[in-house]
Design goal:
Number of strands: 4
Structural class: mainly alpha
Order of helices and strands: HHEHHEHHHHHHHHHHHHHHHHEEHHHH
Largest sheet: 2 strands, parallel
Shape: globular
Radius of gyration: 25 Å
Strand content: under 5%
Length: 478
């Protein structure tokens, strides 16, 4: 699953592509006077003159293609007819992908020494841009229509289990749960770091940022809906369409459109840089921990990071071909699907709360922080999270629908490739367990007892001894 997360660097390449075009005197996704536009293209100068008939406006938009959609599909992606038509490499997009991987390499090539410094800027400066976009969005005409749509959802949808499943999946993705990133990065903390406080502020900051960002997005969508003479739900899109079609189209309707477009895509570039190099750093650290003698040496580490980034760039050239968007959606839908997230969550809870022991985890947290977490966490680890993950896992399988893009249906062989991607993540845990069972000596019961017994950290007794002010003298017997 970690390997499939690498493909999200493509979003950074898209954002860089849009950022470059944002400096043009006329935004190319605002007009239909371009070589890639078709006869069905409708520019913003037409959309911006709505009639009072909402039904007529909605019908007109359905029978045409906006300039923003044509820039996305025909100029940047050059979308082919399907995954079978790979086409040629979009070299401008490939150059953006190369720049993205160069950013990633120099962010992590020195380990946390370099990535920590980069994160100070990439994790904080986007908040400045969000604040600027928020102030501008709230002052636009029609903004409060979008905010009302954001804050007062259709309550009938709360009875739809699919809504809750999607919300849970978003939490997994937003907090990088079950991907190993949090575990790897937290391994750099001091032993007595207050992990409880860190978790609290991480949740508060993450959810708070998402909540505020909703005002930024929906205020602009309300403005866009008023300009087009349609309702807000007509312009709301999910997935890449929100960031690369709806929002660019909205910024083109504002005064000084280039400035607002640059602000938005600069923010998006910084956010994707921050998110992506953390994923790669997690992978590099995990592999380095397996071979510390070879990969932790200063020169060897930089070479290893270069090999990872270079090979990943070559593999991801597939994603910047004319059929690359189909491969990206395939990887996104199957490689990091809820099946993987929920299954890994169940396995982690079983290993930590039942095999290692929830009480033992609580005792370690007390030893680290001096505070004992509430019993609620123990109940969550042992019962609530595994139960909810299992329910979500079953509902996903029951309500499973094959992947489609617009009206395009993926062929059977692509479906088989997607299922292989899912199984490659899901089966890793049981296969590793079976391998250890086969390699461990003894009877089946003995092997199971040995493997389910937690290994004590040799440094722990020595650390407790030092804290108690005691000394231990080791002597050798001749």
């Amino acid at each position: 699953m970690k390997f499939y997360d690498f493909s999200y660097i493509l979003i950074e390449a898209w954002a860089l592509f849009y950022l470059v075009f944002s400096f043009k005197s006329q935004l190319p996704w605002a007009t239909c006077n371009n070589t890639w536009n078709t006869d069905k293209c409708i520019g913003l100068q037409i959309v911006e003159s709505p009639s009072t008939n909402l039904t007529a406006n909605h019908t007109m938009l359905k029978n045409t293609t906006s300039a923003a959609v044509e820039f996305w599909e025909r100029r940047m992606l050059g979308m082919s007819g399907g995954i079978e038509e790979l086409g040629s490499v979009r070299w401008e997009l490939a150059l953006c992908l190369l720049v993205a991987w160069i950013f990633c390499y120099f962010s992590i090539w020195k380990g946390v020494r370099s990535s920590g410094k980069v994160a100070y800027f990439t994790a904080t400066f986007p908040y400045v841009i969000i604040l600027i976009l928020l102030i501008r969005g709230l002052t636009l005409p029609g903004a409060w229509d979008g905010i009302y749509y954001y804050l007062y959802p259709d309550l009938n949808r709360l009875a739809d289990l699919q809504v809750w499943i999607e919300a849970g999946s978003q939490i997994f993705f937003s907090y990088s749960l079950t991907a190993g990133t949090l575990i790897v990065l937290s391994s750099y903390n001091n032993y007595n770091n207050n992990c409880v406080k860190d978790c609290f502020f991480l949740c508060l900051l993450n959810s708070g940022t998402s909540f505020v960002a909703g005002f930024v997005v929906f205020s602009v969508l309300g403005f866009m809906a008023q300009k087009q003479g349609v309702t807000v739900d007509t312009v709301v899109q999910s997935g890449p369409g929100l960031a690369f079609i709806a929002y660019p189209q909205a910024t083109a309707l504002m005064p000084l459109p280039q400035f607002w477009s640059v602000c938005f895509f600069l923010m998006l570039v910084l956010l994707t840089i921050d998110s992506h190099f953390v994923v790669v750093e997690g992978f590099v650290t995990a592999v380095s921990d397996l071979f510390p003698k070879w990969l932790r040496a200063p020169v060897n580490h930089e070479i290893f990071v270069l090999v990872v980034c270079g090979s990943s760039f070559l593999i991801h050239l597939l994603l910047v071909t004319e059929g690359g968007i189909y491969f990206f959606q395939l990887s996104d839908f199957y490689g990091s699907t809820r099946v993987c997230q929920n299954f890994i969550a169940i396995c982690e809870c079983a290993a930590v709360a039942w095999v290692f022991g929830a009480d033992r985890v609580l005792n370690i947290i007390v030893d680290m922080t001096g505070q004992r977490p509430a019993i609620f966490f123990k109940v969550c680890w042992k019962y609530i999270i595994p139960l909810l993950s299992l329910i979500s896992f079953i509902l996903y399988l029951v309500d499973y629908k094959r992947l489609t893009i617009n009206d395009y249906i993926y062929p059977d062989w692509a479906f088989a490739v997607g299922c292989t991607m899912t199984l490659s993540s899901v089966l890793m845990v049981p296969l590793w367990a079976v391998g250890l069972m086969c390699l461990t000596p003894g009877t089946f019961r003995q092997r199971l007892c040995v493997l389910c017994r937690p290994a004590e950290d040799p440094a722990w007794p020595r650390r407790r001894t030092r804290e108690d002010g005691q000394t231990v003298e080791l002597t050798s017997l001749n």
